[in-house]
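Lecture 7 notes: from sequence to structure.

We start with a single chain of 303 residues. Read the sequence below before looking at the structure.
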Amino acid sequence: MSLHQHDILLDSGTNELEIVKFGVGENTFGINVMKVREIIQPVGVTSVPHSHQHVEGMIKLRGEILPVISLFSFFGVEGSGSKDEKYIVTEFNKRKIVFHVGSVSQIHRVSWESIEKPTSLNQGMERHLTGIIKLEETMIFLPDYEKIIYDIESDSGVETYNVHQEGFDEKRTGKKLIIVEDSPLLLRLLTDELKEAGYNDITSFENGKEAYEHIMGLTEEGGDLSEQVDMIISDIEMPKMDGHRLTKLLKDNPRSSDVPVMIFSSLITDDLRHRGEVVGADEQISKPEISDLIKKVDTYVID
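Now the structure, written as tokens:
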């Protein structure tokens, strides 16, 4: 089942996404279609000595060697070994990872508006969830796949994100940045790196809706918005309002269209870059490259 260039992918800026629904034990999970390359039957895995407990090993797929992460192991569920189990081949953050899951059912189209933020009551999984969807009688959990990989690699001593300090530059001081990012981990990494580089005036929001309301509030106070905001840096996947919708609203509004918007997301690939271009993003950078992000911010803000 190939989902690459899936024929019902959505137009940019509609604030909707499509998720592939799958099971792991008794729970139902989802993954954004834009992260999925294909879904295959499990194949022979080559185990890797001293690998992380949640990494089953490596598989060879069309000439590429890809790691397999077991979501059964990660979420502490016994795999049934049933013939319905699948491998979901994903691509995000400029890399391909395979997730071993239970049966895959169908694709659902949902609005980011309907996705709720996880709470501490969600069976201890909330640290690795980005959202929850109530679909008919089913509760669908949306795992934070980036954090899952980050935690596994951190345990193994691997640095997932390129956070090599750019060096402090006082010309960055006082420039006003807005960051829109729902992942506490990414927000902390990004904010720390920007502040160490000299960007000390940062306002953050955990979804596009809150950011948009704040920015519109600034425009209603009168004056030139570009004097109050130098740049907006936004993720794509966020509850309530995604980054593409936020960008489209800002760029379509004469009061906010001049402020540069950078999309900083794990979903920046050659195939998906056009989505950001359609909604008017000034810049798009893939999430691992935090050091590249600072150089790009400089070109818009101080150069």
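The longest helix spans residues 184-197. Keep this in mind for problem set 3.
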